[in-house]
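Regression test case RT-17, inverse folding.

Input:
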């Protein structure tokens, strides 16, 4: 995960969608709302139910200010309105084909890159490219110093698809949800978030105390699902050494 350390003015937009709702997503009027951060620790079994999550449209609206400025942290041109719309379309299409809740896809995008289509590819034991910093994917608009200043729709779709449905060498959210017991419980989504960040999880242990990875990751993701959309997390859990 890249820290979002820049400051932005929270400019919100009101949107309404006629798209099919994901499992557990209520049919309601969507509007931006200010959501404070809550600290979550433990194994996630008593964390908020899916019925407590914000709608996709509320999450989307609450993250527009960050999504429009998040490339600044990487020294890149910020997303254009067209690129942001491509992200939205990619989320909807990938959610429909994978069965993964579009809210989880959006939460992971914001957690990994702040929604910047020009997030750089990080390299450790394998490459992590794109919006979702997926496992050894091939789609990126900033790879090895080669930056695309107009990120194509098919590349944006590829970034979202790889992070959600996996790559030839690594799992995406779809596979991780299956490992966590399926996509019909909030608990499985929280475990999948931990798996996405750390690669492994010992069942029943604290989601905020991984053996490796970002300790705040799961807490940040549940807050995003509740509608929180600030540019920087106030979580202070220490990362593993």
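Golden output:
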């Amino acid at each position: 995960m890249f820290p979002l350390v820049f400051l932005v003015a929270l400019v919100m937009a009101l949107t309404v969608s006629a798209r099919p709702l994901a499992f557990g997503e209520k049919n309601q009027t969507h509007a931006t709302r200010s959501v404070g951060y809550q600290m979550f620790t433990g194994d996630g079994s008593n964390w908020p139910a899916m019925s407590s999550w914000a709608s996709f449209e509320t999450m989307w609206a609450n993250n527009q200010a960050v999504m429009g400025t998040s490339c600044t942290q990487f020294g890149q041109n910020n997303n254009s309105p067209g690129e942001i719309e491509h992200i939205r379309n990619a989320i909807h299409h990938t959610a429909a084909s994978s069965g993964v809740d579009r809210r989880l896809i959006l939460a992971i995008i914001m957690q990994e890159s702040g929604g910047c289509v020009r997030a750089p590819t990080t390299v450790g034991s394998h490459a992590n490219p794109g919006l979702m910093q997926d496992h050894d994917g091939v789609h990126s608009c900033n790879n090895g110093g080669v930056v695309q200043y107009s990120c194509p729709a098919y590349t944006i779709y590829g970034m979202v698809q790889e992070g959600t449905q996996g790559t030839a060498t690594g799992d995406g959210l779809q596979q991780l949800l299956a490992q966590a017991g399926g996509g019909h419980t909030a608990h499985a989504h929280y475990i999948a978030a931990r798996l996405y960040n750390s690669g492994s999880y010992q069942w029943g242990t604290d989601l905020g105390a991984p053996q490796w990875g970002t300790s705040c990751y799961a807490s940040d993701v549940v807050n995003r699902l509740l509608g929180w959309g600030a540019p920087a997390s106030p979580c202070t859990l220490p990362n593993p050494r």
